[in-house]
# Entry
Amino acid sequence: MDELMDKVELLKAVAHPARVKILGELSKGVKCVSDFSEFLGINQPNVSQHLAALRNRGIIDYYVDGRLRCYFLVDAFIPDLLEILEKKYDSPLPAPACCPVTRKGKYPGERKR
# Structure
């Protein structure tokens, strides 16, 4: 159960368009704050807040190079998550045979009344 809750908390931390974009850029390699400001079109303090939230959750980390903070991915789950988010689906799943919308089939389980 703890592992499931960890994944839920990770998803909460990532659940912002700017953070998903940040993670997408970090999946390509190390980046500094100014790289994100230009790419996202938001100011540096806002970028820093998003980076702090991701870092506090252990998703990313940084090292200092002179005056620059260089960020990189730490959590191995993130590339898989990004791949799923980028995947395109042609159509929704078909309705089940017992669907009240299609009025076909019967519910396979036991009905409780």
About this structure: Residues 2-86 form a domain with the Arc Repressor Mutant, subunit A fold (CATH 1.10.10.10). The chain is about 50% helix and 10% strand.
